[in-house]
Every structure is written in C-alpha cells, then in structure tokens.
# Entry
Amino acid sequence: MRRLNHPNLDEVTLVKALSALGDPIRLEIVRKLSDGQEHQGSELDVKVAQSTLSHHFTTLRNAGVVFIRPEGTRCWHSLRPEFDQRFPGLLTKVLELL
Amino acid sequence: MRRLNHPNLDEVTLVKALSALGDPIRLEIVRKLSDGQEHQGSELDVKVAQSTLSHHFTTLRNAGVVFIRPEGTRCWHSLRPEFDQRFPGLLTKVLELL
# Structure
C-alpha cells in the first residue's frame, strides 16, 4: 500500500509549525479536523480548487500537523496526536483563539 | 514628532499573527523583545542586513506584535501589550515552546 512521507516530529521546528498554521485555508482545515476524526478532503467543504487543497495538505503534512492515509484512490486526513507532544498546547491555544 | 502607523488590534487576524510569528528572524526578534524593554534594532544582534531587519519589524508592526517608537534618527522597538489582550496567551505559549 502506498504510504506518504511524514516527518519525524523532532525534526519539525516551531517556525515551520507556525508558518504552516499562518494561512487562512490551512487554519480552516485544522479547525475542521479538530473533531479528531479522519476526513476526505472533499468532506471538509473548503472553497478552493482540489489542487490548491492538496498543496495545503502537503504543507500541513510536512509541518507534522496532519496525517494523510491513502486508501485506494482516496486520502484520509487527520490531525497527528504527536504534534501536541512536540508543541504542547500550541494547537489547543490556536483553536481556542479562532 | 514622526509616528508610525500601528494597526488597531481588532483588525489583526489570527492568521496574520501566526504568519508574522512563523519566521526564524521574527521569532528571534520577539524572543529578544520579550524582556519587556524597548530596544533599538542594532541592540538585538540579529544577523541580517539592516534593510532586512527593518522589513521584519514592519511585518511585526503590521501584525500588531511590535510597537515602534521613532526618536530622532533612532527607532525603539517593544512588544505591544495589547497583543496579549487580542490573542490571550498566544505569545506566552510561543515563547514557552521556543
């Protein structure tokens, strides 16, 4: 089965994390994934083209925020629990301020 | 006396704040200003050209993070206390994770 590359959280810097979160589309994605469930991109109802959405997911994946699980021709997205271990409370604080 | 434009914090979005913080130089500036004092740019010992530093200060000013007080030919920089009222705990969290 195809598997996407996900960074070791130790290699993700705070700058990279903040930069990934500092975008309106990516923040909307994170908010929608904060229900703790896996979602397909199309379910999230983000008003951008599929290619743009895919680009934002890649940025979030590279920053350790999002896990992407391919299944056949679909991709399931969820927040990585390890992100909160790497940056305790950051995502909670950001979501609280949204 | 010359006075620079500083945004009303109500107009600063979380995205803009996170985006301003998501840069290594700007995060270094914020860390150095977190002593609560006013500093001239040159005091901060950030290893970039003066023009680059000035650009980063402008980004931080536009995001409501930094107050810049011109005095003659010098500029004094400090963190804006209102930022923490707008985004309670965000800067504290970011500084804690640095």
